[in-house]
Amino acid sequence: MRGVSDNVHPMKRPPIRQSTLVRSDREHTFEVFVRDIGAWWPTRSHSLGLEKVTTVTIERELGGRIYETWTDGRQVDWGEVILWQPTERFAMTWTSLPEVTEVELTFTALSPALTRVALEHRGWERLTAEQVAAATSLSGGYEAGWKRILDIFTRQVEAGTVEGS
User: Fold this and answer.
1) Of the options 1.10.760.10, 3.40.190.10, 3.30.530.20, 3.20.20.80, the CATH number for the domain spanning 15-159
2) pTM tops 0.70, yes or no
3) Partner of 146 at 20 to 30 A CA spacing, among 4, 94, 112, 121?
4) SS3 137
5) What are the backbone dihedrals phi and psi of residue 157, each rounded to the nearest 5 degrees, phi first?
6) pLDDT by residue (tens digit) across 84-117?
């Protein structure tokens, strides 16, 4: 005899998808995202340590860490690189939620000086309804957050205000 729980399936939650067009070549756009993330990421609003954060680092290899460094030298992990295809795409685990999710970024050259950056944040089905509600309760949640991140990134790459760009 089947129990009631046999008919319970996890709620399918679609991934968050965002994209932006960057007036820059693909290689440069990728490099600024991964190499210079600490220079452009808005840590005062989008980090675990907020005002304590001095930089954000992506270790540029499969299995590399993504972490923020605080003023006291402490390193706080955001995730791990799980896909590494330099200049084309990379994916990482995202450990800032109660359950691990994944974020993948794809860099597509549309012309020699125009790149589409597409972001997909997936794995929301691993979270309970309450966890999703808590994660998305702040002013537009992750949907608005990723849009803001990509907007800041795009503006700074195009303005050439990122160190090394």
Assistant:
1) 3.30.530.20
2) yes
3) 112
4) coil
5) -65, -45
6) 999 999 999 999 888 899 999 999 999 999 999 9
